[in-house]
Amino acid sequence: MGTTGTGRVSDQRIDKVVPLTTPALLHHELPLDDALTAAVLDGRRAVGRVLDRSDDRLMVVVGPCSVHDPAAALEYAHRLAPVARRLSGDLLVVMRVYFEKPRSTVGWKGLINDPGLDGSGDVNTGLRTARALLLEVVRAGLPVGCEFLDPIMPQYIADTVAWGAIGARTVESQVHRQLASGLSMPVGMKNRPDGSIATAVDAIRAAGVPHVFPGIDVSGTPAILHTRGNADGHLVLRGARNAPNYHAEAVAGALELLRAAGLPERLVIDASHDNSGKDHRRQPIVADAVAEQLAAGQRGIVGVMLESFLVPGRQDLEPTRELVYGQSITDACVGWDETEAVLERLARAVAARRETVAGERVAG
């Protein structure tokens, strides 16, 4: 017969194909038991209550830019958990546990894609490592926040996640809007890197309605997925190039866009990325500016995001140099001591907002 036409034209730039473990097999190896399932569901419900403001606390999504060292991330979780419990009257603390790093050009793409930090691309090991860490973070008593980049990865890890995000580079993608429409947790949509908030508002609307699209089921079998739509979509302001959008005027403008679109007036402010000029030392400044708005009675702000790790700053991934334990290899992060101080200031601002709102009701 000879080589078929398909054999001559397909996979011309594929070096090799490695079998991928199925979601079902990974869930069997690393199960979410009844206690952890209850914790995840409790976390999702708590996030939902903050979003609809039946709970007047502030959600704070805090943790490393992108996890590269599971041991350091777990140590961070064990430090964060008691602080989260202590401040739980005012804050709903969600640990940021990101495994996929979106890139404008090239670079390390995250723990799932490259767990060895060496370009070997052992995705099966990456998935097992990621899921094992997620289970331990939930076991420590923390809800998990995660950005979803590859559309099939949620089948492997989304059952552990209480809050999800669609990033600034993918918020305009139809694939990611469809994905968000079927995710089981609230999902935040970030404004585009160029500052377009309308694009994120469109994404919230698109994810809020049913979709039909191809994907995989839990067995790893190709399937057509029919979604119900996600009513818990919300806006995340992360700034734009040379144009932060965390200040009161920008917040008011974003809330007006949501109102005009017929969407709930709620948003999360990312203190990192372009809101801090990608300078981790400015994150506390942004958080303090948000705290002032909270204390003045701004109820449209329902959450804050912080990039934080054990050691402040960042480091380059170099094969010849040992990495500093607990320091980011992607975006620069606030260190632990400053993180705890920022959380305490945000908690005080929420308490002040509560008093301000109560006073307005009495005066009204």
In spatial order, strands of the major sheet run 1-2-3-4-5-8-9-10
- Per the CATH scheme, the topology name is TIM Barrel
CATH architecture: Alpha-Beta Barrel
pLDDT average, as an integer? 95
Q: What Rg, in angstroms, do the CA atoms define?
A: 21 Å
Strand runs, count:
10
Distance between the termini: 85 Å
Count the domains.
1
**Helix fraction?**
25-40%
By DSSP (H or I, 4+ residues per run), the number of helices equals 11
The largest pleated sheet is described as: 8 strands, parallel, barrel
Encode the helix/strand succession as letters. Answer: HHHEHEHEHEHEHEEEHEHEH
- CATH C-level class: Alpha Beta
Instruction: Provide the structure class.
Output: alpha/beta
Low-confidence stretches: none
CATH superfamily: Aldolase class I
Summarize the structure in words.
β1, α4 and β2 form a beta-alpha-beta unit. The strands form two sheets. Strands 1-2-3-4-5-8-9-10 form an eight-stranded parallel beta barrel, surrounded by eight helices. It has a single domain, classed as Aldolase class I (TIM Barrel, Alpha-Beta Barrel). It is globular. The mean pLDDT is 95. With 364 residues, it is α/β, with parallel strands linked by helices. Stereospecific condensation of phosphoenolpyruvate (PEP) and D-erythrose-4-phosphate (E4P) giving rise to 3-deoxy-D-arabino-heptulosonate-7-phosphate (DAHP). This is Phospho-2-dehydro-3-deoxyheptonate aldolase. It comes from Micromonospora pattaloongensis. Pathway: Metabolic intermediate biosynthesis; chorismate biosynthesis; chorismate from D-erythrose 4-phosphate and phosphoenolpyruvate: step 1/7.
